[in-house]
Each structure stands twice: as C-alpha cells, then as structure tokens.
Design brief:
With 388 residues, the protein is mainly alpha-helical. It has four domains: 30 residues; 69 residues; 30 residues; 155 residues, P-loop containing nucleotide triphosphate hydrolases (Rossmann fold), CATH 3.40.50. Helix content is 64%, strand content 7%. A two-stranded antiparallel sheet has the order 1-2. A two-stranded antiparallel sheet has the order 3-4. GO terms for molecular function: DNA binding. This is RecF/RecN/SMC N-terminal domain-containing protein.
C-alpha cells in the first residue's frame, strides 16, 4: 500500500505539472485569440472604409458618365447643326451658280475680283459687292430680303414690258421664211449629191471587188495594201458590231434596262489608213457629247467595252485587268463585275454565249470587295498584322 501511495502521489504530481503546462498553453491561446480578434476587428474597419470609398468612387464615376452623356448629346446636336449649315451653304452656292449661269445666258456682266488678290480659298468667281448700295450690303431679315427681291422683280417686269412695247422688225419673219426655203433647197441639193456620190462609190467598190476575183490567190497575196485593207475591215466590222451590245450590258440596270449606246465610225471609209476612228459612247439618260467630256467612270466603262469588243475578235487565252475599277462608283463596279462574272464563270468559257461572243479567262487586280467577291478564286496580299 505504501508503494502504491507513492506511485499515486508521483502520478498526481506529474498530472499537476501537466495541468500547469496546459493552463499556460490555454493562457497563451487566449492571448493569441484576443490578438486575432483585435486584428479581425481592425480588418473589418478597413473593409468598411474601402466599401465607403468604393461607393464614393462609383458615385463619382456615375457623375462622369452623366457628364459624358451630356457632352455626347451636345456634340451630336452641334454636328447636326453643322450639317444643316453646310446643307444651307451648298444650297446657297447652287442658287448663286444658277444666277451666274442665268446672267451669262442673258449677257449680263457681273463685277468680279481676281481670286489671287482676295486670297479666297473658295472655288469659282469672286464678286465685287462694293458697288452695291450700303442698304443692300447690310444683313437683312428674311422678310426684308423677300421684299427687296419682289422690288427687283417688279423693276425687271417693267423693263421687259418696255422692251416688248418697242416696234419689232416686221420684215424679219419674211426674211426668215426666205432663208429657211433657201436652206431647204440647198439641203435637198446636198442630199441628192451625197446620194449620187454614195451610189458611185458603191459601184466603184463592187467593181473593185470583182476585179480581185480575176486574179489568182498568189497574185492577190502580192498586193499588200489590199490584204491590209481586208484584214483591217474584217476586224473593224466585227468590233463595231459587238461594241454596242457589250456597252449595253455594262450600262444597263433595273432603272435603265436598255443601257447606253456606243458605236465606231471611220473618218474615211474609202481609205481608213489615212484617217482615224471616231469612238462615241452615250451613257443612259445622257445626250451626245465628245469622249473628252465624259467623267472618269464613264470613260472607264467605255474603255472596257472597247477592250472586250477587241478581245472578242480573236480571243487570247487570258488577260489581266489591273485596278480597272479605280474610277468607278459602287453601281458601275457591280455592273462590270457582273459582266466579267457572266463571261468567265464555269460553263461560259469555251461556249458561245447569247450575244455571239466567247467566254474568257481573266485575272483581276482590285481593292473593292464588291468586285473581287464574285471571283472563282482569290489570291490575297496583306500586311503581317502581328509584326505591323
């Protein structure tokens, strides 16, 4: 029993030592927990502060967004005003041009200044308004301008009435009828002479054709001039017969289903090598005018019609078109692209089409997607986007 009591006492002493250590660790853990609680509270306070700052930033961002929206609305309003003013300026310029043209037709001279002296950047003539009255130089309200315009119109009507009241030349009508009768007689005489000349020319050509049938092929080959003439006329007749059809295909649309008109004329039909060839192209709704007076796009379409007509005579295996659509607008680009597509698509090459021409192969260099998206195959050239 004594030994057991000693063992139990030693065990109690060890347990007491363990209890002391556990209490120390408990105190240490409580201290650590208190420190962690204090730090957690501090972090919570910081989080609350950052939330407050975040709300303030969001409010400030919303204010900036509202200001940006207002500024964008103001810019759009100003741009609309600018567009409206530019439209008004264009209308005024157009009206001024109409007035200038009317003055030229009426042979009214307007005082003009040298643009070099005024250093004006605007195109067209610069007028000298210093000769007007001071009352006309002042800016007036629309009602005052309309009243002033009505006064001028009244003065013009009075002058026109005065001119009409003057005594006319009563013999002018008789002289006009006599000259008209003389002109008609001369015209009939000219037409008769031209018809007689044409009949004699046709007889001469028929005799000349029969004369060449009397020679052998070897003798005909010796006459280089005749061979050149026959070769030239064969090519010219073929091209002149096809150019109008091709030009109509290039210019026709839903609004103009008939298209334009194009034709070739020899300046000297008897000896074409001594003179030139006149090429005339009239786009839809346009009157007759020289080729030099056509726009760049109209000249391009006319040139393409001539190119395709020449190619239809003796087609080459293929040909290259290098940016022929540079001067064309979107509508003409679509027409030209559709024509080339109809002639070069699969099935058209090697077959006789409805207009009598053969299909062809072409390589087209173009920068317009409405043109090259109709191709059978594409080769794209572009910059290296990663390096660039």
């Amino acid at each position: 029993m004594g030994s057991r009591i000693k063992e139990l006492e030693s065990s109690i002493s060890a347990l007491k030592n363990d209890l002391v250590q556990v209490k120390e660790r408990e105190d240490q853990a409580k201290s650590t927990a208190e420190d962690a609680t204090v730090e957690i509270n501090r972090y919570k306070e910081e989080v609350q502060e950052w939330k407050t700052k975040l709300e303030e930033c969001e409010k400030e961002m919303q204010e900036w967004k509202n200001q940006t929206s207002k500024a964008t609305t103001g810019i759009s309003k100003i741009n609309r005003q600018i567009s409206s003013k530019e439209t008004q300026i264009d209308q005024l310029k157009s009206r001024m041009q109409e007035i200038v043209d009317m003055c030229e037709l009426e042979h009214i001279s307007l005082p003009k200044l040298d643009p070099m002296e005024t250093e004006s950047s605007t195109a067209g003539p610069v007028f000298d308004f210093s000769q007007l009255n001071r009352s006309l130089l002042q800016d007036k309200r629309p009602a005052e301008r309309e009243k002033l315009e009505a006064d001028f119109k009244q003065k013009m009507d009075a002058l026109i009435s005065e001119i009409e009241r003057t005594a006319p030349n009563l013999r002018a009508l008789g002289q006009y009828e006599a000259l008209k009768e003389k002109e008609r007689a001369i015209t009939e005489e000219f037409e008769a002479a031209r018809k007689e000349e044409k009949d004699k020319t046709d007889k001469f050509n028929s005799v000349k054709e029969e004369r060449w049938h009397l020679f052998t092929p070897e003798e005909v080959k010796d006459d280089i001039i005749y061979c050149r003439y026959r070769l030239f006329m064969d090519a010219f007749n073929h091209i002149s017969n096809n150019i109008d059809k091709i030009y109509k295909q290039l210019t026709k649309s839903s609004t103009h289903p008939l298209g334009g008109t194009a034709y070739l004329n020899l300046e000297n039909e008897d000896d074409p090598f001594l003179h030139g060839i006149k090429y005339t192209a009239m786009p839809p709704t346009k009157r007759f005018r020289d080729m030099e007076q056509l726009s760049g796009g109209e000249k391009t379409v006319a040139a393409l019609a001539l190119l395709f007509s020449i190619h239809s005579y003796r087609p080459s295996p293929f040909f290259i078109l290098d940016e022929v659509d540079a001067a064309l607008d979107n509508l003409n680009v679509a027409k030209v692209a559709g024509f080339i597509r109809s002639k070069s698509c699969e099935g058209a090459r090697g077959n006789q089409d409805a207009e009598g021409g053969n299909g062809f192969q072409s390589i087209v260099i173009s920068l317009k997607d409405s043109f090259y998206d109709k191709a059978e195959a594409l080769v794209g050239v572009y910059r290296d986007s990663e390096r660039g």
